[in-house]
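User: These chains co-purify. Model them together.
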Amino acid sequence: MRIEKKYTPPAEPDLTPMIDMTFQLIAFFMVLINFSQSEQNDKVVLPTSELAKPADTPLEFPIIVHLTNTGSVVIGGDEVSIEAMRSRLAPELSLLKLEGKTAADANIIIRGHGGVPGGRVQELISKCQDLGFQNFALRVKEEI
Amino acid sequence: MKFRHKSSQQDKTELSMTSMIDIVFLLLVFFVMTFKISAQEGDFNIKMPQDGEGQADNTQLPLKLRLKADPAGNIQEIVLNDSQSFGTNWEQLRGYIVQLVGDQTGPTDDEGPEVEIDLDYNLQYVHVIEAITSVTGYRSGNDVVRLIDRIKFAKQRK
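Assistant: Joint model of the two components:
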């Protein structure tokens, strides 16, 4: 008997659902990713508060100051002592001047480590007050 | 003239998905690896101009909160107006503030009573935030009931 050879096409899996799902996952992670690494510091563990809620409107001219567990201050990636803050904040003050504003218009966001002495935070605020800053925001993490 | 039809098999052009899937998976791995779940952050706003320049308390409620620390930097005693002691109980302090200012309508930024926090130098910052949380408000379900928004620090103790 003669057996006729049938042509069988190679089995191809349908990749459409997998690609759909993968794109959805990528979209999900892209939306949630947080690139604001400048606002984070490894040496700072923020204290928590049940009242912590992101502000409705962003603060005007924010200057983020990290107060680390060693008591030093980190501004824009530069670690300095509280005593040396004046020189580190000079460029920010010049920038404010260029925009026709004063230090009183800026907001100092203090990201203090929970374990540092409260007096150290007062020192930091006092140094900023000497430079003319008067608006401060104590940043805390939401209590979960 | 006779046209020779090509077989349909030859007509079919296949799109190679391999490279695209490679890149898509690379992107996916990148996003998964860099993904970081972090809790929300919020601010307690404090307006503290140089001595004597601030707006005076326009209410008849002078609130001076004294926070005493033990040598380890933990809270030892909470005293309000040099007379009322709450031990180390923040809830009691909050209850007292609620009685004092009421919680019907929250204060606005520039009015309402002001709390001056006077703390020992070595008191851990986490306790300072607990004090600010206690006087600022409390959570009622999903809503935040505001009590006192104006906070300032007393002169630093050494």
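Strands of chain B lie at 41-47, 62-69, 75-80, 84-85, 114-119, 137-140, 143-146, 150-153.
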